[in-house]
Amino acid sequence: MDYNLNGKTFLITGITDKASLALPVAKHILSLGGRLVCTALGLTDHHDNLSDKAKEYLTKTYNDFKVAVNEELGSSVITYPLDVTLDGSITDFGKALHKDGIQLDGYLHSIAMDKTIRAGVVKPLIEVTREEFMGAMDVSAYSLISLSRALLESSVLKKGSSIAAFSYLGAEKIVVHPYKNIGVAKAALERIVFELAFELGKSHQIRVNAIRFSPYTASKAGGAIQGLGEAVAYCNEASPLGNALPNDLALEAVYLLCHAGRITGEIRHVDGGYHIRG
Description:
The chain has 8 helices and 9 strands. The protein has 278 residues and is α/β, with parallel strands linked by helices. It has a 7-stranded parallel β-sheet with strand order 3-2-1-4-7-8-9, with helices on both faces. A two-stranded antiparallel sheet has the order 5-6. The longest helix is centred in the C-terminal third of the chain and has 25 residues, at 180-204.
């Protein structure tokens, strides 16, 4: 089913390159006439006392994001750097949207980070440090709260708008590949979805939902997870419909962002039915 999104604007977070799962969502919104604002990790005024290596990393990350956006979505898409670990960066982003006269009809939360996944190996949970645990929670879960708050305080997230967040089956159960620390963070994200669905529904008629997608290796995040390639093959065979594709995810995300009526507080599955397996 097609929808007309003329006059509507959506924020898309989490595009890092051309394989990012947020990108098909952005493309689908554009195809329906919507406008986009996109963010990615980049150097901001709130990054103090950084080494040259850290500055180079942030600059390259943002430049890669800009290339992906320009080539896949077009140069007219508005972009901003955003670091969700820095309150000042989040606040400034909200203020910048307000100053630029941008009003949002919804946003996609596609942000996650876990430093316990390195060189394709996932650290056992019992070995995870406090810093690693809190870092994953901060970026992957708490950012849904802090970003939503900043957008509301800046009066750019409209009443009756919608928020959709990307999650994974590993938030609920032990999956067929190591997920561990990031799974705990995704579980927290889903619990936050429930709380925000209630609070923001009551206060602003804002809908908040999450989507769990099939295992996926093409993105930077997916490609770094130990055993995920084997999991893709296993889940494709075990799922009633086979693994879902990025376009399937985009269709569900855009539906939840734009047309889901009174659907809120849902954890939706776009995984070919794999979640029904025991």
